[in-house]
Model the fold of this input.
Amino acid sequence: MRALRLWRGLRARPVPPVRALRSAVPPRPGPQQVTAEVLGQLEHLALVDFRDAEGVERLQKAIRFADQLREVNTDGVEPMDSVLEDRCLYLREDDVTEGNCTRELLKNAREKVEEYFVAPPGNIPLPKLEDQETFLQGS
Amino acid sequence: MCFQVSAALRDGHVTPTELCQRCLSLIKSTKFLNAYITVAEESALKQAEESEERYRRGQPLGVLDGIPIAVKDNFNTAGIETTCASNMLKGYISPYNATVVQKLLDQGAVLLGKTNLDEFAMGSGSTDGVFGPVRNPWSYSRQYKEKSVPKSHSEDEESNWVITGGSSGGSAAAVSSFTCFAALGSDTGGSTRNPAAHCGVVGLKPTYGLISRHGLIPLVNSMDVPGILTRCVDDAAVVLGSLAGHDPKDSTTIQDNFKPFELPNLTDVSKLSIGIPKEYHAPGLSSEILALWSKAADLFKNAGAKVIEVSLPHTRYSIVCYHVLCTAEVASNMARFDGLEYGHRSDMNKSTESMYAATRREGFNDVVRGRILSGNYFLLKQNYENYFVKAQKVRRLIANDFVKVFGSGVDILLTPTTLSDAAPYTEFIKEDNRTRSAQDDILTQAANMAGLPAINVPTALSERGLPVGLQFIGRSFQEKQLLTVAKWFEKQVKFPMIQLEEVKRHDHGVFQHQKSASFS
Done:
């Protein structure tokens, strides 16, 4: 029966108490709140809404969490896009080898006409936050 | 001692249809686990019959012929609904098979169904999908029940169940409860290894670029990999052998020739150098797991291996880095869901943009929407340098940490997989998804950051009677070495088999005498 011996390196460090409800790396207070203008801009870009104050708070927390990156010194470090950056991407010959599956692909679309996907009229910008309620109610 | 299902099929002790039927029956009895979203009963039986015909003729396609498998529901499967546990894709029937699914089917594997997950694989508990949370089979094991503190009579077993971990919780639960012999998961930040640890199964994250992602609905293109969940390391090697290799349909797969391998039975570990990264002694690591980790290090040392402490100094920033890169890539990847070509489409039709917005509001849950919005924030022109590019630079520092350590002669890193054993569901949901992910991914996602292979090996039961696993991280594309060491370790620790009532009832000698089901 092997005696249990704590590995030297691991034993030397005091174990902090388990704080199950906190993030392992606690967020720091952010520089400023996200402006309403930026919130509106984000909703427009993402075409996804915050829904409520909780959603906005979630973003604030996410930003505060991400701000920890400032602590790292990255002078002279190149950004890394991919772990396979030292290899050449595979390029195949420009030959058509598959396709002709229009019917299968259209099967999953809800609104279609012949071989076209049907969309509502474009070039109508999503209204600003304040006007959205009325806009969406009027449909 | 492994019972070899494959050999049993070859020798006719059991037929593929019998095997398939038993698994389907067991799936029905374990429905309360909520591990499966879709069970493809008809097509599975058909595949089993075809397999049986091949065995009759003495021409099985390979070791996987007739073996029942399950696939996480974010892999496209032709003719079978693929939902990603989201309203956005409810009812979506893919016109094609993901490459990995196709490869398994080409080997004759029997696809039983699609397993449950966190919505779009975002989460670490498999609790945030629209089909409800997945329950850890160990919640119902004799081992857990024996250790449970008797509660007041108002609370019963129902409220005591623990989570599977995530996001591939359904796959892990399916393998753990014997309803299939192997399952596919996906791993972006630990989504295969985390549930593997909590459910007591082997969870392999291959090197980025080894296995095709074609057909895997993407979360983070630069980190996603298909994951493999099995009951023993040998099985993982077999599945890896059938999946790895260049795919012309996924240009991020490497073009090197991949040769499937059989794992040698390592007896001499004296030439091995095991690294113990000190930063993985993270805040919140339970004393139980710390002790287990230490014991494992001793195991290697006593067997003659060189065990040294190493440092990966940027470990504590990897979770922040991941948070930024993940949300940024998610913001991009989720843009494809607009209701026009597939998936949910809102009835709103005043304008294209309002239709898109309404569709996405109706289709995505809070977690997904939160990540999209955060991601878009980090990608704004005014934030791009400070957040996204900065995170990419930190990513290089993290990857370089590993390069330095492996370059100094270390072969394999040994770390814990999770901070503790599985939490009860009622405890887990007290914190929101992002916080939980940040806590739970801390030990697993640096490997995704660097693209390295990693594997969870179930090690022992905790004081509460729940599985705890340890993680091995290897060098890029050195899966053979990684799995060889993992197999040696697995043999030493002799992780106990789950004692589940439902499995015993369906035994019929198929699962009997198994510590782990090997089909190799």
